[in-house]
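Human:
If only I could read backbone structure tokens as easily as an amino acid sequence. I am handing you a single protein, as its sequence and its fold in token form. I hope you can help me see how the letters and the tokens relate. Thank you; the sequence and its tokens follow:
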Amino acid sequence: MWKLANVSVRGSAHQKTRLPCQDWSALRVLGPERNVVVCALSDGASSARFAHEAAHLVTEGALNYFVRDLSKQSDPLKAIANYDRTDGKLMIQEQQRLLVQASDERGAPLNDYSATLLVAILHPDVSVFLQVGDGCWSVARSGVLGAVTWPTQGEFVGQTDMVTSPNAARTFQMSRVVGRVDFIVGISDGLERLALDMTGCVPHPPFFWPLAQTLRFQMDAETFQAGLYQFLESDRVCARTDDDKSLVLVVHDG
């Protein structure tokens, strides 16, 4: 019912400085009918010493939170439809505890584990999106593409909310889409210049639609994912952004 792909690519700036990729992305497919997908991505703050670890921790932690909860539910559709800000708050607070534990074990300041977080819980009949910080979730329905979350900008250029922020569990974005969607895309801020019209606050269709159509008609998802990785590493893309880049793409293949 779903075709999916995700990649996280080290930016050219980090290649030059020999730093690891500070983004992380992952997907989980649930149920015998494989009709529920939980996906997440994170961008570790460039100023954070353990940014790559933080991105990994919160991405996998968020997936574990919702997979654990949905595995207990007799009706996953009803559970997803009933998710509200309390569920988002509890999920974020759990990630904050993971980051506090990691920083304590290292004896490092909590800010050394700063990272954003984007999460989506998808069912053919309803989808829920959560976001702390920048990046974006975009959804296409009946041929119309729109953003369901938007990059959060701080007081200064390049500043955004982080999971480690004291108010993250209160000010996070949450959106719900009822009914079938054509595809869902999540991106980290490294792709904002290519994928978003920041003036009009809308996603850029020429970036998203070809990717979704290619995945829809690509028989081998692994081949598509490998091609997506090469595209995001290409000179064409790196000429416009030297940041790490993550992209999650889920296509409804009904």
Residues 85-106 form the longest helix (22 residues).
